[in-house]
Amino acid sequence: MAEGSANIGFGGNGADYPVRSGSVGPDVIDIRKLYANTGAFTFDPGFTSTASCESAITYIDGDQGILLHRGYPIDQLAEQSSFMEVAYLLLNSELPTAAELDKFSYTITRHTMLHEQLSTFYRGFRRDAHPMAIMCGVVGALSAFYHDSTDIADPRQRMIASHRLIAKMPTIAAMAYKYSIGQPFVYPKNDLSYTGNFLRMTFGVPAEEYEVDPIVEAAMDKIFILHADHEQNASTSTVRLAGSSGANPFACIAAGIACLWGPAHGGANEAALNMLREIGHVDRIPEYIARAKNKDDPFRLMGFGHRVYKNYDPRAKVLGAAATEVLARMGKSDPILDVARKLEEIALTDPYFVEKKLYPNVDFYSGVILSAIGFPTTMFTALFALARTVGWVAQWNEMIADPEQKIGRPRQLYTGPTQRDYIPVDRR
Ligand code: SDX
């Protein structure tokens, strides 16, 4: 829907470029013809001013701290929905009826088992392998087992692969945890919820029945909802770029897992709790605030700041409240939560953080809850990947179905040597 045009002049000639408006949010200037018209590229290394695609899945207003999934506010979904329902919404654009949700949950549940040979794949890893290393490897290896759902031109195969990925991530993540602690893998149980199944596969043992704690199940499901999708973040953009070449969905999601692992992205939840534990006591907070402000110190407050949110991350708001509630309902306390609260209070009044609009993000409080549930910090990003698989798969499907989709191939500003002749080694 063209909304007028923008005139961009360069090298003495100007041209009009279409301006398009979405349903909400900033307009875009369609510059696809800029290079042909001017011989110049745009330059935007971190994509701070670049829309890479058209999407109808998730909308973020960073200034207002708003996050919508297919139009529904994240706080309403977190409080009233379930992860399975949000997965259906992200994949299918609308909230499901009760019958649609039952059918979707039934389908997902019956894809939760892994090909038995994949369990031997784990034995190739050292016991102390980081779960994200295992997730990258095992998810990528799925394309060696599920050839009947790798033809991306076939919508039916795309949906089967999507269901398989959503269904098997909990099993793969739980197995990564079991392998790291030397316990046997626990098979899925079809009469449990998606999240209850994951908790049993993670914390259950063959030696006794495992009772899913409804408080923990509800907290875990809420955490999955809050991590499900987030517009064109680094890992989602990785999945889209990998998918734009026609790579199979399992390989694309493995690429997304690899990108998410970074401490600037999904790895921040593990880094944030490690940071809070290193601070250890509220008396030591000023020392770390000073380090975060010191340009000569690479230290950053992990779980703080965001490329898009220049206001409070709405997910952090929900998680901050949930941390207090879940620990209380579990009858647990964690001094680290006091450190987190005090750190937030001090940072939000410090001119450095106020001027740079640095607020807690989704990774600041999640670790306190995950730790209380019993996960080691090394599992935190694997849990983020488990939940984000729903968003990655939804975004991948949207990209494949986009008639304007083509392989992503950015250009560059070249600053290396201009052409020169080869000099044989005996003359150098
Ligand atoms: C996620 O994109 C998404 O949507 C991601 C995500 C999702 O759901 O997919 O929301 C999940 O990745 C959340 C972010 C998790 N990462 C962290 O918590 C790591 C700590 N945060 C930062 O590294 C940083 O804030 C980023 C990476 C999140 C954002 O970086 P930007 O947008 O590139 O901003 P920047 O690095 O240019 O920082 C702007 C300024 C800089 O100072 P100046 O150079 O202008 O003087 O703010 C400073 C930075 O030094 N700054 C921080 C800081 N974050 C930014 N200073 C101290 N502590 C921090 N955490």
Query: Strand percentage, roughly?
Result: 5-15%
**End-to-end span in angstroms?**
60 Å
Question: How many strand units?
Answer: 6
Task: Record the strand order, biggest sheet.
Answer: 1-2-3
State the helix count: 18
Q: Looking at the structure, what is the overall shape?
A: globular
Q: Provide the low-confidence segments as ranges.
A: none
Overall mean pLDDT: 96
N-to-C order of helices and strands: EEEHEEEHHHHHHHHHHHHHHHHH
Helical fraction: 40-55%
Bound molecules: s-citryldethia Coenzyme A
Please compute the radius of gyration using only Cα atoms: 23 Å
Largest sheet data: 3 strands, antiparallel
- SS class: mainly alpha
Description:
With 428 residues, the protein is mainly alpha-helical. The chain is 49% helix and 7% strand. The chain is built from 18 helices and six strands. It has helices at 34-38, 74-80, 83-92, 98-109, 118-122, 131-141, 155-181, 194-203, 214-226, 234-243, 249-260, 268-279, 285-293, 314-329, 335-347, 351-355, 362-373, 380-401, and strands at 2-10, 13-20, 28-29, 58-61, 66-69, 72-73. The strands form two sheets. It has a three-stranded antiparallel β-sheet with strand order 1-2-3. A hairpin with a 2-residue loop joins strand 1 (2-10) and strand 2. Helix 14 packs parallel to helix 17 (362-373). The model has no long low-confidence stretch (mean pLDDT 96). The site of s-citryldethia Coenzyme A has 22 residues, from helix 17.
